[in-house]
Amino acid sequence: MSRHEPVLNPVAIKELHPTQITVGYREVAEKRRLWREKGGAEGSEYLGRHMIPVVKGPKDRHYILDHHHLCRALLEEGVKDILVDVISDLRGLKRPEFWSYLDQRAWCHPYDASGERVAFKAIPIAVADLPDDPYRSLAGELRRAGGFAKDITPFSEFIWANYLRRRVKPRLLAEDFGAALSHALKLAKADTADFMPGWCGPSSPD
Question: What's the fold here for domain 6-129?
């Protein structure tokens, strides 16, 4: 991304517009927990290190390119404003052109909680309206558990979420997250997952 100067004036989180359809609510809860641990001056420093990358779009709106989970967590924790880093100014594009441009740059993710691609108009207009995708939470926890490495591939956690969606039963995920994670770790270390972004290979020889 070619970066512009960060916006030094805070932007209201409730006025930020998502570029994806879902978040993982467990992931949001984890970021809320981390935020509560920061608090005070350390919290301010944390926000300073986590400016939200955005593009300016039609009607002078700010569209989030990353950190949707953090924005949702901060909103639920009562944080009203956050600093943003304007990556590109696309206010000259009309709405259909704008979304097409984001799509071509892999700057949006129009896929629902079933992993199915949908129309751009299905993307919520506010962070507070983002619905839950439990498999995105599973993918986030899988990465933290060493199942795969952080990767530059856009939306890599969603790619893993979709991979797990077809291999981890919804009932297991809903009733026993720990067991679902253990199963996901086995799936992630298998040779059959070697094409996935951030694949780490088997944890030990057979």
Answer: 3.90.1530
